[in-house]
Design goal:
It is built from 8 helices and 7 strands. The chain has 252 residues and is α/β, with parallel strands linked by helices. It has a single domain, classed as NAD(P)-binding Rossmann-like Domain (Rossmann fold, 3-Layer(aba) Sandwich), CATH 3.40.50.720. It starts with a strand and ends in a 14-residue tail after the last strand. It binds NADPH dihydro-nicotinamide-adenine-dinucleotide phosphate and 2-hydroxyethylsulfonic acid.
């Protein structure tokens, strides 16, 4: 019987690579995102390449009603979710606090914190009912150390860290694993989004060193997901070799 993984934010970057990793290992996948064309095309590609079943759900994690409509009461064949990967998220801007945009703050908090909570609240009942499951939250080194001009993005990722720790405790009676993966700089669409589509600025973020690739995070997620039932990686910080903290890089 194929296992089921639900991955939020699978239209690009980590989420897309994680979906491909699980599909290539014969897992059925529920993939989500807002960009419908990309999501459905990716679903077709995975079905074609790996002969697995894919459910693609287009919704915005910021809106609890959309989350409710899409994830509560899933079709019977999709209810048995083994793993939830809370990956959808973003940074907007890199400004000092006094120059920051309140709208950007709202979007980051509504996506990275409230969106993760809404999705988790919808999916946890499928896991508690069978006393089994695994929730993997994608945090960040920004949730471990604050850095200059990181303010609200860092705060949202500190929240992901706190939610992961407290979920792990609350869900102990249900034998549900909770893992937080905290990546450093990775070359995805993340910087393009952060710098509002400015490709030059985004490129500069990765200049002079080899950043993490999305497939590195997919491999690590896969490793965390395939350990024996009694083993749970609580949290894991991973950077590229050229990054030594949230802000220290060796650029050549
Ligand atoms: P990408 O921009 O490549 O991917 C982000 C994904 O999140 C997209 O699939 C996007 O889909 C989805 N998403 C964003 N907002 C929403 C929303 N409101 N509703 C639904 N889906 C949404 O970036 P990454 O792959 O790098 O980012 C994935 C996660 O990793 C994020 O949580 C990010 O904070 C974290 N991270 C990234 C690092 C990096 O350097 N790249 C390092 C550490 C952590 P769509 O736009 O179609 O909705
Ligand atoms: C993304 C990595 O260093 O831009 O979470 O905060 S960083």
């Amino acid at each position: 019987m194929h296992k089921i993984v639900l991955i939020t934010g699978a239209t690009s970057g980590f989420g897309k690579a994680i979906a491909e990793k699980f599909a290539s290992n014969h897992w059925n996948c529920i993939i989500t995102g807002r960009r419908a064309d990309r999501l459905h095309a990716f679903a077709d590609e995975l079905r074609e390449k790996y002969s697995v079943r894919i459910l693609s759900l287009v919704f915005n994690v910021q809106h609890k009603e959309e989350v409710r409509q899409n994830l509560y009461d899933l079709p019977a064949e999709w209810k048995d979710i083994d793993i939830l990967v809370n990956n959808a998220g973003l940074a907007l801007g890199r400004d000092t606090f006094e120059k920051g945009s309140i709208d950007d703050w709202d979007t980051m908090i509504d996506t990275n914190v409230k969106g993760l909570l809404y999705v988790t609240k919808a999916v946890v009942p499928y896991m508690t009912s069978k006393k089994q499951g695994h929730i993997i939250n994608i945090g960040s080194v920004a949730g471990k150390e604050v850095y200059e001009k990181g303010n609200v993005y860092c705060a949202t990722k500190f929240a992901v860290d706190a939610i992961s720790k407290s979920l792990r405790i609350d869900l102990l009676p249900y034998k549900i694993k909770v893992t937080a993966i905290h990546p450093g700089s990775a070359d995805t669409e993340f910087s393009l989004v952060r710098f509002n589509g400015d490709g030059d600025k985004a490129k500069r973020a990765y200049e002079g060193y080899t950043p993490l690739h999305a497939r590195d995070i997919a491999d690590i997620t896969w490793y965390c997901s395939t350990l024996p039932p009694h083993v749970c990686i609580n949290e894991l910080i991973v950077t590229c070799t050229a990054q030594g903290s949230a802000v220290n890089f060796y650029r050549e």
